[in-house]
Structures are given as structure tokens and as C-alpha cells.
Amino acid sequence: MKTLPLLIFATSACADDLAPLSDEFNNASTWQNWSDLAEVEGWQAPSYETADINTSEAGRFHIVPASNTWFDHLRGLLFFKEVTGDFVVTTRLRVLSRHNAEDPNEIPNRSFSLTGILVHGPRDITQAAPVPYTTDAVWPPQDFGSDYEANSENYIFLSYGTAGNPGTRQFEIKATRNSNSRLYYDDTGIDQNQTEAWLQMVRVGDTIVCLRKHSEDGEWIVENRYPNPDHPFPDFGPTLQVGLTAYTDWPTAAPFNAAGLEACYHFNYAPPASSTRDLISQVDYFRFARPNPALTEAHLQGMSTSYDPSSNSTANPPILLSASPTAQDYLGEAANTPFDFSADNDGDGFPDSLEVALGSDASNASSLPLITCEVVEESFHYSFPTLTSGLELEVQTSHDLVTWHTIASRPGNSILWTTEPSHSVLLNEETQRLSAIIPMDEQVQFVRLAGIF
């Protein structure tokens, strides 16, 4: 019996699986593709006065929010799509105001009136409001037909508008873990005459980086990375609700927040009428993509950010994306550029995406993916590093190099392997390497690792 190891990186030509989630907002019918968190969680009270696509404003998602906000136990507006695993989302949006109908380009003058990207951890809540519905204050929720769970909000957002200084254009950024929010806001790098902003958020593993820019030809600012010592990572699972938020009128919500959890719950299902809402959000596009496989979590963790912990604000001047050479080719404008999975920049015969997935240096031809093969008792162990990329993976065997049979597979952005009977994939806790265990037979056998896109 002879067993020959063979490493081949097989690719399946298919499009980015997240790209179909993108929306250019030039077709009113795509409204049905977005989920409204208020409806999903059963809050009864709508989070908006008006929301439509390519109707109120051609080529834009037009949102006029009701009084709502995101802070601690207070929940706001979110139109979202569910995403599992790594992602990068990019949006271009316009902030208008309501206080002067003759000139909506004026800066909103109601504090914390902003719009932007929000990623939210799904909750097992479908009937948050009391049943039967009432605008009266009730507590505890479970005694009134509600499945609301306190201390369960987990999210990160980056938004643009006016924050703690009404009448000044600012961004706001916030991380919330189990309904405990940490935030800051600033106007560094912002042209006070610019109604528009470009925002981006990327997740790889358990790291999220937020970026912004403030003109079409401007440079991307790396605002912050999560987790960091001052802002813990939310309690996120593999699947997130990723989308658009728009919120306004903090002074109306503030007394409820000051009164505590019970009052916040009341505000969430029955906010009082207000005539001081001062935000119109108009979004040009919202684009989803898988990050380039060459962009690793280590790259994100190594990026310089603008966040200044000493002031809980933004350094001046802010840190640009160009200060992170290992990440700049994959973020900013490049994030939505289709990439070549088969590229082999160092000419060593292994595609860059495979080298990155297996922990070798894709820019160094002498750094090769470490694959080992050995016979252990009556089995063949085909071993490789624990893979951190979002590729769909298969271990395949063949007796003739023509017909290949999958004996183990792992979906993209998962750590769970499915195997054929009598086969297994085991993790060595000490070395953090995976081994596909293949029973030996009497024929020549070839083995390959396939990455499928």
C-alpha cells in the first residue's frame, strides 16, 4: 500500500455570496428585501415617520425617523439584512434637517440626530410590546405578554449628523455590550458644509474596524477598532443584523433614560409625540461584500486608529487608511472591487488566498503552507493549520487524479466539519492544527485541500 499526499488548491468560480444583498436604491421594489427591527422584535410603535426607496427621492433610501435613539436599554431604528461570518459594508449617505423647510441642507439642531451603519446581535424577541398593546407604562414585561429580555442589546454603529453639539456636523461611534453603551463623537476631519459622508465597517473574526471619509475624493479615516481597552466587543455570535440606522430627538428620550430600565422599556414601545424631530436620512447605496481572503484578523488588529483613549475622542489629525499598508489594499474603495482568488503574487504556485488561510506569507515565495502527512496506526493523517478565512473548505481524495471524492467539508465562516463515515477531522489543542483522519486502503491515494468560493 502506498499513499501519496498532494496539495491542490481547487477553486469554484462563483460570485461573492454577499454581493446580492447590496442595494443601489434605484428600484422601489427592493424595499421588501429589508427587515425592520421594530417589526421583527414586535415593538408595535414604528421607528419612522416615512421610509421608502426610489420614491420620495429618486435613487435613494429616504428615511424620516421618529423619536428614537440607541443607548443602553433604549433601542432605535434599524433596517437590516442578516449576515453570517466576515463582511465589509460601505455606504454613502446624506444628512438633511427638518427645522427649516426652505433649506433642508441646514445642519440638524436637535442633539443626537444621525444616520449610519449599525451591526446588531439578533435577539430571541418577537413580541416585545405588551399584549394587548397599551401605551401605558407596565412592568415586568413578562406579566403583560411580552418576551422582552433586559440587558441583551449588543451592537456597534458609526453614524453621521449632529451629536452632542447641536448645529455642528459630527460623527458618533458607539459599542454596546449587554445594554452597557460606550460612545464618543467628534467633528475632526469633517467639512461643516458637507451634507454627505461615506462610511465603512469591516468584520473579520471577532474584530471590527470602522472607517469614514467626508468627500468623494477624500481619504479614508480609520476611526476605531473593536475590541479595544475602552470599548469591549459586544456579545456577538456568527450572525449579525447589518444595516442602516437613523435616529433623532435625544432630549425627548433622555428623561426616560435617566429614570432607568423600566422607563426605557416604556419609551421603546410607546415614545411620546414630539414636534422637534430634526433628521432626514437619504442613502445612495449600501454595499455588502466578503472581505478579500488576504485581509486577516491580524491585519485589522495591527491597524492604527484615530481613537485617542486619553480623551475618549479622535486624534487631530486623524489616522488615515494609508497608515496601514497591510490593510489599505483591501479596504476603502478597494473593498468593493472584485478580487482574483487565483492570484499568486509571489509566484510560488500557491494562490494568495490559500497561503493567507494557511498562515503563510503570500508575498514571500519561501514561505509555503505547512501541510504534513503521516501514517498513525491504521490511518493516514493529513494535517494543516487551523483556517481562519471565510472559505468553504473540502478535503478530497482520489485514486486517479481525475475523480475526486469529498470526505470532509466545512462551510465558509464555520469551524464545524462534516465527514464521511469512518473519517474525522480533529483539532490538536496544543498545536492548533487540524488533521483529516483517512483510513488506509490498498490503492494509491491522493489527497487535496480545496477552497471553494
Structure notes:
It is a single chain. With 453 residues, the protein is mostly beta strands. 8% of the residues lie in helices and 34% in strands. The strands form 5 sheets. It has a 7-stranded antiparallel sheet with strand order 2-5-14-7-8-9-10. A 7-stranded antiparallel sheet has the order 3-4-15-6-11-12-13. A hairpin with a 2-residue loop joins strand 18 and strand 19 (379-385). Helix 2 (250-259) runs antiparallel to helix 3 (261-269).
Strand order of the main beta sheet, please?
A: 2-5-14-7-8-9-10
Categorize the overall geometry.
globular
Q: Could you name the ranges where pLDDT drops below 50 across 5 or more consecutive residues? A: 1-14
Please estimate the helix content: under 10%
Q: What is the radius of gyration computed over CA atoms, rounded to a whole number of angstroms?
A: 25 Å
Could you spell the SSE succession in H and E letters? EEHEEEEEEEEEEEEHHEHEEHEEEEEEEE
The whole-number mean of residue pLDDT values reads 90
* End-to-end gap: 34 Å
Q: Based on helices, strands and strand pairing, what is the structural class?
A: mainly beta
Major beta-sheet overview:
7 strands, antiparallel
* Proportion of residues in β-strands: 25-35%
Q: How many separate helices?
A: 5
Please give the number of β-strands: 25
